[in-house]
Amino acid sequence: MAFPRHVVLLSFEGPDRYASIGGLGTRVSQLARALGEAGSLVDLVFVGDPAMKPVESFAPNVTLRRWSQWISAYHPRNAYDAEDLKVNDWLESVPPFVIDQIVAPAALEGEQTLVIAEEWQTAGAAIAIDRLARDRGLRSSITLMWNANNTYGWERIDWPALQAAAAVTAVSKYMKFELSLLGVPALVIPNGLDERLLVGADPELVDAFRVAFGTRKTLVKVGRFDPDKNWLQAIDAVAELRAGGIDAMLIVRGGREAYGDVVFARAHERDLTVERLEYEGSDPARIADGIALAKGPIVHLRAFLDEGALFGLYAAADAVLANSGKEPFGLVGLEVMAAGGVAVCGATGEEYAEPFVNAIVCDTPDGRELATYLRDMLTDPERQAELRAAGKETAARYTWAAAIAALERKIGYVDAVAR
User: Fold this and answer.
1) Same domain for 123 and 270?
2) Residues 383 and 333 reside in one and the same domain
3) Statement to judge: residues 408 and 383 lie in one domain
4) CATH number, residue 373
5) Domain check: are 70 and 207 in the same one?
6) Is 85 exposed, middle or buried (0-12, 13-18, 19+ CB in 10 A)?
7) Do 59 and 7 contact (CB within 8 A), yes or no?
8) With the C-alpha atoms ordered 346, 350, 351, 357, is the resulting torsion angle positive or negative?
9) Domain hosting residue 24, numbered range
10) How many CB atoms lie under 10 A from the CB of residue 376?
11) Does residue 407 sit in the same domain as residue 389?
12) Cα dist. 315→180, 188, 214 in Å?
């Protein structure tokens, strides 16, 4: 079968800093780019920066459509600010746009349109797209999918209506299992990596960060301050390592969530001092200089880290703690591998992670478990090098080209069932 020439991606998150909150923004941005490079005409509809152009070219064959800007202008925190208002706006305005401006013109040319809606915020819009397409006699011209990246907001979804409207997909077998608990069958279509990331981190930047770390064994943890991310395990592991004589430092890049106070309170309980570094913009050289001057075991970094800076940190660190207790896919762990770093993962959706082969994998939230595995690796440079090399090999197998090939086959099944 031929891959649909027209693709519409619906997601609250996207490539703008305003809409880059978690892994979903990375997923849809990279998927859109990969589909465009493969020849599809892609419209990425997302809750974009209210100060930027409503419509803009993003990559070859990819058009960004920033939705709900009239709401975002009054709610500038991020794409989820005034979430309910935006969900209602999408329900009313996105379906007629998709059908009238994309699906109908494509159908006149005898071409199919693939629509992939992401997460609970778009479930109502997906249902409405199905209904409107049927009313217009265009349902056979659409392959409609709704994709689950996380369990957030599932209690707000009309599951029978969604299943009747769209094929339900998930990013991992773990998410497929979570959906099965609701009696919802799902197709698994994994995430991928942009192939250009396989080049790895900038060697000069990696060297600069390693010089900044000095002789300290350095761990990095980047993510929202959320209990699911096992932040307390990370803090406890650092305390255990230091108690065992290892000069360990943890660089923390979290969000502005209130749970951060709990994380740093735990650090103080474990007699770990916290130093805060705050910078405007993303200047890796300044960040490296600040880390070099920091003396405490916990460095709280408050700065925007662009892709280059993140990859530099990932590759330079002794390990990157993507040790979530509940991780639907674990895109960060895969990016760490691509950068040439050592990924520490949880044991849920990170199906690419082979314990002690290409990653360190924790089964519990106990800091002592994490410290045990880290101690073994930190005192064995050869073992660390093996993990880095195996991780790079793994990342090369998880490109978007491979994910799109899987998606194409799943589309064939969905269309066969629809007939």
Assistant:
1) no
2) yes
3) no
4) 3.40.50.2000
5) no
6) middle
7) no
8) negative
9) 6-192+399-418
10) 13
11) no
12) 37, 30, 15
**345, 387 in Cβ contact below 8 A?**
no
Which helix or strand (DSSP H or E) is residue 58 part of? strand 55-59
Beta bridge partners of 142: 113
Q: Would 1 be classed as within a structural domain? A: no
Beta bridge partners of 80: none
Q: How far is CA 62 from CA 28, 36, 41, 126, 147, in A?
A: 11, 6, 6, 21, 20
Identify which of 405, 396, 407, 417 has the alpha carbon closest to the alpha carbon of residue 195.
Answer: 396
Q: In 98-226, which ranges are continuous DSSP H helix?
A: 104-108, 123-135, 159-165, 173-180, 203-213
Instruction: State the residue for tokens 């990596």.
Output: 193
| Strand pairing class (248-253; 187-188) | unpaired
E strands, 89-237, where? 113-118, 142-148, 167-170, 187-188, 217-222
Tens of pLDDT along the chain (419 residues) come to 579 999 999 999 999 999 998 889 999 999 999 999 999 999 999 999 999 999 999 999 999 999 999 999 999 999 999 999 999 999 999 999 999 999 999 999 999 999 999 999 999 999 999 999 999 999 999 999 999 999 999 999 999 999 999 999 999 999 999 999 999 999 999 999 988 889 999 999 999 999 999 999 999 999 989 999 999 999 999 999 999 999 999 999 998 899 999 999 999 999 999 999 998 877 899 999 999 999 899 999 998 888 899 999 999 999 999 999 999 999 999 999 999 999 999 999 999 999 999 999 999 999 999 999 999 999 999 999 999 999 999 999 999 999 999 999 999 999 998 77
Whether residue 293 sits in one domain with residue 383:
yes
Measured between alpha carbons, how far is 378 from 2 in angstroms, rounded to an integer? 49
Number of domains making up the chain: 2
Q: Are residues 128 and 228 in the same domain?
A: no
What's the predicted TM-score (pTM) here?
0.90
| Cβ pair 327, 309 in contact under 8 A | no
In eight-state DSSP terms, residue 13 is: -
